[in-house]
TrEMBL record:
It comes from the Bacteria. PROSITE patterns: PROKAR_LIPOPROTEIN. It holds the Pfam family Lipocalin_4. The lineage of its organism: Bacteria, Pseudomonadati, Bacteroidota, Cytophagia, Cytophagales. Residues 40-129 form the Lipocalin-like domain. This is Lipocalin family protein.
Amino acid sequence: MKQLLPCISLALASALGSCTNDKKEEPSPQIDSQLLTSNTWKLTAETQTVGNAEPVAKYSTSDVGANDNTLKFLADYSLRMDEGATKDSHISLQTVSGKWKLSGKTLTIVVAPFTRQCVIQELTATKLIVRVDETLDGDQRVTRYMYEAQ
């Protein structure tokens, strides 16, 4: 899949570059996992900030192959990413499965052999925003993924 939705696309694109989160965050309240599992989520926007630069939009509405991809968190802590009707490539898998875990605001996604940690910045019945902090080639990068409920 060209855009493997929540954070996995970044994991693949960065070839599992080293990830760090040097920022100290205050302990956060638990996220209601029922909000996470009650919807199928579709990526609608993505921005990336490198160092102190302004955020750059990374999601393109012209990327038809990724525009209908969806993500589903299931109550049994399994995860399903679906390519949608418009596949990016004939060799793309239609569905990729994995696992998820939520601890405070930290969302861990495992699609073997990749593991990615994200911070949930906002979660409502209709919106999910996650942030990935990582260091790639010495640059601190912050990527935000915005999803809408389907």
